[in-house]
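Many introductory courses stop at the sequence. We go one step further.
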Amino acid sequence: MKRNFTVRQGALDGVEAFLSVAQHRNFRKAAADLAVTPSAISQAVRTLESRLGAALFIRTTRSVGLTEVGERFLSRAKPAFEELVAASEIARDLGRRPAGLLRLAAPRAVVPILLEPLIASFCQAYPDVEVEIATGAELVDIAAEGFDAGIRLGQFIQADMIAVQLTPSLPLAVVGSPDYLYRRGRPERIDDLRHQACIRMRRSNGSIAPWSFVSGNEPVDVMVSGPFIANDMPTVLGAAVEGLGLAQVPGPVASSAVKAGKLIGVLEPFAPMMPGVYLYYPSRHQMLPKLRAFIDHVKSRPGAGNKPQ
């Protein structure tokens, strides 16, 4: 059977007054310390004693002392209250300026081509913010898993997220190593992929992703085959560089290897455009200064912009 519970109200009422009286051993000095009237201090202490069911102070016309209950209560309440005050100060500080730990979830493929230069300049601009990047192929529930924001391709961002564009739309490129293309020949048409070894990507839901193309104005999805399957773009790209087969990856992911002559692009006339990379987060109303500073830093980059979801 489900039990009903209520939140106890006023659990800390009177504690600050008690601690001040215990420190000064004087109700008037405690009142002056807290900028309230002596009667307010007396009432707060009486209410606390009533709630605890025991006297905390021994009062005479000349002095104020602690009872045994008061001594024991002081020994536990004082450090606990000081911790609460310190916690409040930390929370207030984090709410006023960019500071603390900024946690971002991102695919591994975007880290070297996008995040590394961005993070370097951000950390220099905001030395009181620590940045943690958790990489993975699977889509992450950023709120449930304690992230401040995530980075994904636009089509994978949920409709209730706010998104900031990091890159323009990207071409999907098919690439292969010079050695592989020498051995197997260069494909000229989409249909030629039936005779090629293709490196495939397994999605986080377990399915194998088809390769996407554009023929004329029509999108075309092709289920390819090949000797190797991976679940992240860097591994797919590395396998292509080693000559295992052709790979289809976002153009910027392959650009360095293409410039270095390690990979060659093929089937360029059929390359589709895919949504760019976006930073996304749940709500402007829940945003701490550390995330606001990062978003402003992102927006200051050439070509960055907003795309409300």
